[in-house]
Specification:
By secondary structure, the protein is mainly β. Helix content is 0%, strand content 49%. The protein is built from no helices and eleven strands.
Length: 125
Amino acid sequence: QVQLVESGGGSVQAGGSLRLSCAASGFPVSNYCMGWFRQAPGKEREGVATIAGDGSTSYADSVKGRFTISRDNSENTLYLQMSSLKPEDTAMYYCAAEPRWFSGTRYCPKELPYWGQGTQVTVSS
């Protein structure tokens, strides 16, 4: 059974850092496409970063150079290291995965079917 559990959110001042974690179970994070998404109040959900089965990464322009997506295969956990945080980064952050297909490939589908419950990140100015 696939399960994703996020943690690591919190409140931080602008310029600060946070590391989000997404503990996965039911599949190996090393093989499949996973991603981080966020949704701010009144706004649509947006993709933040993805990591494909072959390790290829992709970032939204708004976070390039500030955020890093990675995974720890031994812990079976996905991470999002966030630095130089801005108030506009305030949102609920979700991790998602496609653990059924595209194992070991560089392809990440647009829609990922499995989601965690989210963790709140608040950045104050």
